[in-house]
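Appendix B. Worked example

We walk through a single record from start to finish. Start with the input: the chain for Formyl-CoA transferase, Sphingobium chlorophenolicum L-1, length 408.
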Amino acid sequence: MTQPGILNATLQGLRVLEIGHFVAAPFCTRLLGDLGADVVKIEPLTGDPVRQWGEQVDGRSLWWSIHGRNKRSLAMDLKAAEARDIVLRLVAQCDVLVENFRPGQLDRMGLSETTLKEANPKLIIARISGYGQTGPYRDRAAFGVIGEAIGGLRHLTNHPPGSYDLPPVRVGVSIGDSIAGLYAAFGIMAALWQRDRAGGDRAMRTLDVALTESVFSMMEAMLPEYGRLGKVKQPTGGGIATAAPSNAYPTADGGFMLIAANSEPLFARLAELMGRPDMVRDARFAGNAARVAHAAELDALIAGWSGTMSTAELEAKLTAADIPSSRAYTAADAAHDPQYLERGMVREVMDPALGPVLHSGIVPHVPESPGAIRWTGPDIGAHSDEILSGAGFDAAAISSLRQKGVVG
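Next comes the structure step. The output line below is what the pipeline stores for this chain.
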């Protein structure tokens, strides 16, 4: 499994097999691929469902261009009798297997952990599922949205109770899936370190990542506040329940400015900028605890001031005063932002099917050993022949598999 067009990438030489679909597992492997890992994605003969998601250009998904980047595609019917042997040959060459089927589905395909371990005793397996591989909910259907709901996030993404009568809103992206993918990638690197450290145990490691638990683990003090005080954390709209002022404030031209002046020096600078230095001495706003208790009053004062200026004027004043602030970026703002451009977080890449496409860059930045966007999301089965050839199948065997409808 070779990696053309990249030198000294952080994960160069790491071999990853993805048997995933939709978002969580593919997001995990995209992170690894961005840092140089050789990722082989097994997808159905009709392609990963995400190929049909989002805006399309001539029937091709713009999301897929980035979601499938830096991966080699092997189109295969995993239910075919021959599929098991193909997967095991690939597993024998890999360091990592990432999957996000329902618990037990790979076992029913003849790909149990025991079988995988026999093929490669050093394999790291990352399993991503809705509820995890054990427990009373393990067999329930789940997507990222369910992880966000049970993890506690959906309850909190709203305005304060009584001020809004619509359902809790979505964050705006598949955040539950992405968080699970991040945890899986982190777990993979931890397991590889343990496997490969000097004198370490080189036996197979299995990671069990649940969408629900991944979101739940991000909920800060929600659980201890309930357990110790019986307090159920409630949504706070654009504000923060533990610090003030920190919120989104209106501008004269219909925009919103995020202002986080929630330390004593920052609040003093904001009060001075507003022409209200007296606020620092106001008992309602003297210290963070007092400001939190009177956040609604404070936010109203700030909003009355911010609403007299355009977004650009307000942004300039806040920046000059060195107060953490920003307008709420749109895609257009991000695409032209000089900070993103300077650090390569907005890149124009050439997609063979779509032409020039903007991609987000690679995180984390590793200046001494950078990752790269080697290619965009490939066609279904674009690398089937080279992957199978690398696994020991000759041209006649590959042709036979294709004729039988096993691979595409």
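Two observations about the output. The longest strand covers residues 38-43. The chain has two domains: 15-217+340-403, 246-250+256-327.
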